[in-house]
Structures are given as structure tokens and as C-alpha cells.
Amino acid sequence: MQLGFIGLGTMGRPMALNLMRGGHAMAVWSRRPESAAPLVAEGATACETPAALGAVCDVVFTMVTSTEDVRGVVLGEDGLRSGLRPGSLVIDMSTIDPGVTREIAAALAEHDVDMLDAPVSGGPKGAQDATLAIMVGGPPVALERARPLLACLGPTVMHLGDQGAGQTTKLCHQLALLVNAQGAAEALNLARQCGLDVEQVRQVMMAGMASSRVLDAFGAKMAARDFEAGIESRLYHKDMHLALGLAHAQGAAAPAAAVTMQLINGLAGRDWGRRDLAALVGLVEELGQSPGDTPDD
Predict the structure, then answer these.
(1) Average confidence (pLDDT) over 212-235
(2) Strands 133-137 and 120-121: what pairing?
């Protein structure tokens, strides 16, 4: 089967490579040729536009940053829609607005092209190791067609409902993740302020009811003050903005998420948007500083 992949960043590049290792031919498009180079070196074909890519592919994956990025590569000038043949399938694995997902799916359906929204969780390591959890919205028939491909990316593939359901689930996931990360930052900062060994406290918490994958992954980086980004915090800012917008639209209360968003805004306001989410602990420390203190950088 001829596949295409658009979005060859920290997540997309290893995902595309895993699909190729599954025995599938791959075409790629990237705004920056250097992003596509590792795939081309492994045998992928570089295309000049998304439309050109769509014209030669049976199934196209997208894994780009924002809602408007997805809209642009699919529906924009020289976008996928211009090249895709009837019967093709688009699988969007980005994290975007569920309402826009439905709009894009409807526009593709007019050309007899199916779409699945299939955002993922697992981070760069999950992308590299093919251990991603995949949350799918869209037609069941299209999912069954895609299952052998998604199996190349992760063992957990769950169908949540119609188009947009995958994105909605991912935003619920991100809300829980980010509120959890804020709690970890506050707890570990309190341990530090009380003179305790922060890593020891984290290990004890990991053995108790406070244990979580967030405390395991991000808490370890908080304890070590390792703010080098796996996924940049600016991307979580985008996700929480979408989650809060969805909550507002549904009339759902999200008070902890609203408070956490203020802290994530604070990361952006200090030009920490390219740091890891673990940098939340640095911001919490700064908030506790007296006016004459100098926060750690």
C-alpha cells in the first residue's frame, strides 16, 4: 500500500519510519526539506506539494502542530484535497479542534475521501518505540481499513465514535495530564521548600496513591531540574486552550484546568515555551519567591 506522511517533526518522523519498517512504501512532504531528509535516506519519495503527495497515495497521515496547519495541508491551495483520488483515506494524528476536524471530514467526503481523527499519547519515546495509544474518531469501516497501519504505531487503538471523537478524547486526556503536572510541581516544590530530598519524596509518592505516569516522567525531570524539552510546553499550551474552549462550549466546569492554564500562560510569558512541561516547577518556585529573591533560571 502506498502511504503518505505530512508532519515530520519529533513525533511524525519516527512514526513514518515505523510505517516504512512495516513494509509500506512512503511519500513525504515537508515545508523544510531537511525534515524529510531522514525519510528520503530510508527510501521515501519526497513530493513538491501536499496535492502531489495525495495524488500518489492510498492513505495519507498528517501529524502537524495546529488546527490551521491541518486545514491548510488538507484543504488549502495545493492541499491534499486537490490531489487525493476517490476512495483515499486521510488519518489526522495531530491534536486539533474537534469541530474543525468535522468540517475537514465533511469537505473530504464531498470528494469520496474518508477521514479518521486519530490523535496519540505516548510522547517521542512512544513514537520511536511504536507504543503509542491511539484515540480514533470516524467511520468504523475506515478504521478497519487503517488498523494494520495503526498497529505499526502502537498496540492500543480505541474507536471512540464519529469524526471528532478522537480529538475530544485527546483534549480530555490533556486536561487531566496538565492538571496532574501542576499538582506534581506544587508538591515537589513544597518538598524542596521543606528541605527534603525531592527525588526521594517523588519515589515515595510513586509507591503511593499519588503515583501516576505524569509524576513518573515529568516529576523525575522536575526533581532533577531538567527542563530540556521532550515536547515543548508551548504545545501543551495549545492543547489546554483547546480543552478549555471545548469545556466552555459544553458548559462543563473546569476550575482546576483554568488555574493550570494561568501557569502555562506564565511559561509562555517568560519565554519558557520551548522548555519541557517540567519547567512548571520552576514557575511555581518563582511564584513563592519574596520580592527580593532571585529565581533560578
Answers:
(1) 93
(2) antiparallel
Residue 271 has pLDDT above 90, yes or no: no
pLDDT band of residue 67 (cuts 50, 70, 90) is very high
The DSSP code sequence of 155-182 is: SEEEEEESTTHHHHHHHHHHHHHHHHHH
Phi first, then psi: give them for residue 156, nearest 5 degrees: -110, 110
| Domains in the chain: ranges and CATH | 2-162 (3.40.50.720), 168-287 (1.10.1040.10)
Q: Name the pTM for this structure.
A: 0.93
Alpha carbon of residue 73 to chain centroid: 17
Q: Which three cell numbers stand for residue 270?
A: 517568560
Residue that has been written with the C-alpha cell 527580593 in this structure: 292
Measured CA to CA, the distance from residue 241 to residue 239 in angstroms comes to 5
Instruction: Give the confidence band of 295 by pLDDT, cuts at 50, 70, 90.
Output: very low
Q: How confident is the model at residue 200 (pLDDT cuts 50, 70, 90)?
A: very high
**Average pLDDT, integer, range 100-121:** 98
Which residues does the annotation mark as catalytic?
Answer: 170
Query: Which ranges constitute the DSSP H helices of 112-210?
Result: 123-129, 140-150, 165-193, 198-206
**C-alpha radius of gyration, the chain, whole number:** 20
Other beta carbons within 10 angstroms of residue 191's beta carbon come to 19
Q: Which residues pair with 135 in a beta bridge?
A: 158
Dig out the grid coordinates for 289 from the structure: 519567591
